[in-house]
């Protein structure tokens, strides 16, 4: 029986990211959470460790040594239990931009684009995401270069969940979201995550009439990592 979970993924040589922190209710207050977090922090081998958490877990994380709070931005979770209407979104990418169904031949262009955004190599994560079962991925190309890519995955509760999705131009992002929703008509709900500083990203769930489900705060063990959330539209 699984009574609790917490993962730790190595993003760079200096940064590890944790998430999916959950303990079954009947096992809470039995030191399970502390043990999970201790093991994940140890996996970081002394390097910086980051988590995204709702406001109720900030205190427990601080007590366990994750003390540095990101104060410039937070993530916004949008979620609805009913299907959304893609007709309210526009599909008008700029001239010269093609939005294509993902093929493995697109991976080199996607890797180059993603590196320009993230600043480090995420090839293994991207390849796994683009080829995940029960998902669709689109790639935006212009003059032979990737200018955006995005996925929608059918979750275990049969919601269509957008992410990752990156685009230089907000109209490209909106067009990709519209096409992804259409591509998975069996989705019984819809979910996506943006950040509160990116106006264009937050306009998409507003158009779809998807309510805010939760706010997530970024916390670090050692130091904040600068992320330019306005440089590109990301979901």
From TrEMBL:
Positions of the YitH/HolE acetyltransferase (GNAT) domain: 110-225
Q: Which Gene3D superfamilies match?
A: 3.40.630.90
Spell out the Pfam families in the cross-references: Acetyltransf_18
Q: Which PANTHER family match?
A: SLL0310 PROTEIN
Q: What is this protein called?
A: N-acetyltransferase domain-containing protein
Q: Which organism is it from?
A: Trichonephila inaurata madagascariensis
